[in-house]
Design a protein that fits this description.
heterodimer, A: alpha/beta, Rossmann fold, 7-stranded mixed beta sheet, 5-stranded mixed beta sheet, 12 helices, B: alpha/beta, two-stranded antiparallel sheet, 11 helices, 11% strand, globular, binds thiamine diphosphate, binds magnesium ion
Chain lengths: 327, 334
């Protein structure tokens, strides 16, 4: 048993993939000699050398373009975009090129690459270094979307993502880098597309992702201890592919559903889930699906402002009580 | 004046180049005809008048090398040896098309021939071509990647990002700017800070300034061979600016009225790469009968391929749902 941080699990996951497969290489800004701005890639350059760990210029299009081209020949690049917000400057490569080339070429070209990126708020970095952008990539056919909430999921899902024959965007949550977990075995494989029930309960289903899954779990502990409410918490782990079966099963059991999303409200992933639930298990619902999201605003920076914008454990607790007890 | 004694190219290669350019020309003309008959829908961007560039590279490249081109890429695709019915069939949305109608005119792709795609968002493919070049370096294999683009493309950021990356990593790649003097409907000099949109930027990336007459097939071939050899020998990237002119409008919908009549006439009559090359072959004492036989052969190939394409079935509707993912399907939830 060893304690591993989410941060350390990232570099370990990359290293494990690179040890297993010579086709895997890693490219990004400040990722090698500097070990990454979040220190999540420390030690990789030392172990694998410059040929496999490439420090790139500030050229997000060129980084993802190079990763794409290399993947087209059968290599398995892992490319880092330092902050997910920077995906906006290379969105053509992501949304038009990486996502569509397999389809347009009638399956002649596979693009087995992973784009890792630091996502989410909590660091008081302001509106351009804090966004939760999973929904940007979720709406593009051809991209798989993964967002792990704990070190073991980082390990297992990274292994899957690197082996996946399709492009995967791997959203790491900045506020989880310091999160610790006891880990027995580090060589894990978790298939992409399997949600994880991280707290059991029969009264309500709370669906979260990344940091919001952890907050929902913390809320479930409080609800159980102090309010006699048993919440089942589902950590989706990936939005594409989506584990609809696990969601359906849980809705049938509990009849009440709440999504907890870090993104601003409009077109957040919870809207799609809510629509799927009403299509697939409308009759099992005891009330409307509730969406807890960031309000539809850019993220402010000051402590009190940011803390009151992103859904907190307290907010989740209160919303659940309001929903179930009408208080 | 031709110097027959010091001929570095030779009859065999010249005839190869002739056949290649003629094929590109006649297929493009056929594509235009099929448009007029409404057998080709959507848009298309013809490379009529620019055949010497794709043709020369087609002759100079080896099997296994990678090429990337733009929406104006029918010629570049054919130049790698893709079948005529594969190209025309794709334009017509038939099952015999290279991508069975999934991509269309602007996205011709034929991986078996090294055609790594045709790209319709300006600039992107320069960065992607770096990736195949990077893979060759990583794998220590010696393929060369070639990336074709227009003069207008030199003003988008991806062009600059790609050149810098290719240089710092010494990638085996050749960037080929086909300067046809216009970006869409605007003369390139009106929107570019320098006279030679690609070549004048080369120095910024520590690359040689290379300008070539892109309508002189022999010069084009020499320039292509030199840059390809340099890349193959591990000596890094090149940026070539080839001056040329498109005979037709920018795309199907464009009659090209913004260009002065005199200018169009000069390029069509005096600088047509195919007309001039035919004259050159005669100057080199190549038998006119051989030249004409090649012409007949290509005409025949184009007609046969047109028949095959017209007879080919249209795609099945279920194809909509295939090949989003590597498992062949499009499911996004269980
Ligand atoms: C990013 C982007 N901006 C604009 C366009 C629209 N567009 C298509 S072709 C073209 C002109 C490109 O000119 P050039 O690079 O000289 O190539 P040419 O068409 O002359 O071969 C433009 C502006 C586009 N496809 N992509
Ligand atoms: Mg142009």
């Amino acid at each position: 048993m060893a304690q591993l941080t989410y941060r350390a699990s990232v570099s370990l996951a990359i290293a494990q993939s690179m040890r297993k497969d010579q086709k895997v290489f890693f490219i990004g800004e400040d990722v090698g000699a500097a070990g990454g701005v979040f220190k999540a890639t420390v030690g990789l350059l030392e172990e694998f050398g410059k040929e496999r760990v490439m420090d790139a210029p500030i050229s997000e299009q060129a980084i993802l373009g190079a990763a794409m081209g290399a993947a087209m020949t059968g290599l398995r690049p892992i490319a880092e975009i330092m902050f997910s917000d920077f995906l906006a400057v290379c969105w053509d490569i992501v949304a038009n090129q990486i996502a569509k080339t397999r389809y347009m070429s009638d399956g002649q070209i596979n693009i087995p690459l992973v784009i890792r990126t630091a996502n989410g708020g909590g660091s008081k970095f302001g509106a351009q270094h804090s966004q939760s952008l999973e929904n940007w990539s979720m709406m593009i056919p051809g991209l798989k979307v993964v967002a792990p909430s704990c070190p073991s999921d980082v390990l297992g899902l990274m292994d899957s993502a690197v082996k996946d024959p399709d492009p995967v965007i791997f959203y790491e949550h900045k506020s989880l880098y310091a999160f610790k977990e006891e880990i027995e075995k580090t060589d894990l494989f978790i298939p992409i597309g399997e949600a994880n029930t991280i707290h059991e309960g029969k009264d309500i289903t709370i669906i979260g992702l990344a940091l919001m899954a952890q907050r929902a779990k913390d809320a479930a502990l409080i609800l159980k201890d102090k309010h006699d409410i048993n919440a089942k918490v589902i950590d989706l782990r990936s939005l594409v592919p989506l584990d609809l079966q696990t969601i359906k099963k849980s809705v049938i059991e509990t009849g009440h559903v709440m999504t907890v999303e870090e993104n601003p409200r409009l077109c957040g992933w919870g809207a799609e889930i809510s629509s799927l639930i009403s299509e697939h298990c409308f009759k099992n619902l005891k009330g409307p699906v509730t969406r807890v999201t960031t309000p539809h605003v850019p993220l402010p920076s000051a402590d009190i402002l940011e803390d009151n914008t992103i859904p907190s454990v307290e907010l989740i607790v209160n919303e659940v009580i309001k929903k179930l007890k009408g208080e | 004046m031709v110097d027959k004694l010091n001929d570095d190219i030779g009859e065999e290669k010249r005839l190869q180049l002739w056949e290649m350019m003629l094929k590109l020309r006649l297929v493009e003309k056929k594509a235009y005809d099929l448009f007029l008959q409404n057998l080709i829908k959507g848009t298309s961007h013809l490379a009529l008048g620019q055949e010497a560039i794709a043709g020369a590279f087609g002759v100079a490249l080896k099997q296994g090398d990678y090429t990337f081109c733009t929406y104006r890429g029918h010629a570049h695709t054919l130049a790698r040896g893709s079948s005529i019915e594969g190209v025309l069939g794709e334009l017509m949305g038939r099952q015999c098309g290279l991508m069975k109608g999934k991509g269309g005119s602007m996205h011709l792709t034929d991986v078996d021939k090294g055609v790594m795609g045709s790209y319709a968002i300006i600039g992107a493919h320069l960065t992607i071509a770096n990736g195949t070049a990077l893979a060759s370096k990583y794998n220590k294999t010696n393929e060369v990647s070639v990336c074709f683009f227009g003069d207008g493309t030199t003003n988008i950021g991806a062009f600059h990002e790609a050149l810098n990356m290719a240089k710092i990593w010494n990638l085996p790649i050749v960037f080929v700017c086909e300067n046809n003097l216009y970006m869409e409907y605007t003369p390139i000099h009106e929107v570019t800070a320098v006279e030679h949109p690609a070549a004048d930027r080369a120095g910024a990336y520590d690359l040689d300034k290379i300008i070539v007459d892109g309508n002189d097939a022999d010069e084009m071939l020499r320039t292509a061979e030199k840059a390809i050899s340099k890349a193959r020998e591990g000596k890094g990237p090149s940026l070539i600016e080839a001056k040329t002119y498109r005979h037709s409008g920018h795309s199907r919908a464009d009659p090209g009225k913004y260009r002065p009549d005199e200018e169009v006439k000069d390029w069509m009559e005096n600088k047509d790469p195919i007309k001039n090359y035919r004259a050159k072959l005669l100057d080199f004492n190549i038998n006119e009968k051989i030249i004409s036989e090649i012409e007949e052969k290509i005409k025949d190939q184009v007609e046969k391929a047109t028949e095959i394409s017209m007879a080919s079935p249209i795609p099945e509707i279920k194809e909509i749902y295939t090949d989003v993912w590597a498992n062949g399907g499009s499911e996004w939830h269980n």
